[in-house]
């Protein structure tokens, strides 16, 4: 379903104060239970209406959102997070486009998701998974990754569920 909604985003640059603007157009939105999936386009437009210096560049963006996962909280079940990670992998496919994982601070929910997927990648390569070492290594790159004890416990439960139920996908080897 293509929606006719369009908006303009303005981002002020700190180096020089120049404003960057872009148009967004939501192409599709699909909500299923705990997840929302959106496809939209992002187009560069000139900051000055009289300017003709638009790059004309248009990028297609796919957003996968875990809408029922509260800030500082955990998902309702490990199986739900595993399903979400698998959907992210499916959407990403063999694309060379960059993937951005984000939440409000970029450390709690983001940390849980990237830690679980990293553990899945290790399992698929038949390498040992040591959750505490994994988080410590990742915290060297992103401080405070995984904000709460319950989030770390959830990571461990999810990794165990992946292992017990053989949720790893050999196609990603």
TrEMBL record:
GO molecular function: protein tyrosine phosphatase activity
Polar residues bias locations: 1-13
Region named Disordered: 1-23
Pfam family, one: Y_phosphatase
InterPro entries: Prot-tyrosine_phosphatase-like, PTP_cat, Tyr_Pase_AS, Tyr_Pase_cat, Tyr_Pase_dom
Domain Tyrosine-protein phosphatase, chain residue ranges per copy: 34-162
Tyrosine specific protein phosphatases domain mapped to chain residues: 79-153
Entry-linked PANTHER family: TYROSINE-PROTEIN PHOSPHATASE
Protein name: Tyrosine-protein phosphatase non-receptor type 4
Source lineage: Eukaryota, Metazoa, Spiralia, Lophotrochozoa, Platyhelminthes
């Amino acid at each position: 379903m293509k929606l006719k909604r369009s908006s303009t985003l303005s981002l002020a640059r700190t180096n020089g104060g120049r404003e960057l603007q872009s148009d967004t157009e939501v192409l599709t939105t699909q909500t299923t239970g705990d997840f929302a999936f959106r496809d939209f386009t992002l187009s560069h437009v000139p900051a000055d209406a009289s300017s003709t210096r638009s790059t004309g560049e248009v990028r297609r963006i796919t957003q996968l959102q875990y809408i029922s996962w509260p800030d500082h909280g955990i998902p309702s079940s490990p199986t739900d997070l595993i399903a979400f990670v698998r959907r992210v992998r499916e959407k990403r496919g063999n694309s060379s486009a960059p993937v951005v994982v984000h939440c409000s601070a970029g450390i709690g929910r983001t940390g849980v998701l990237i830690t679980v997927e990293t553990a899945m990648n290790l399992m698929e390569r038949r390498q040992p998974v040591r959750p505490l070492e994994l988080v410590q290594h990742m915290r060297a790159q992103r401080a405070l990754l995984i904000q709460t004890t319950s989030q770390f416990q959830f990571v461990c439960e999810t990794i165990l569920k992946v292992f017990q139920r053989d949720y790893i996908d050999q196609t990603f080897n």
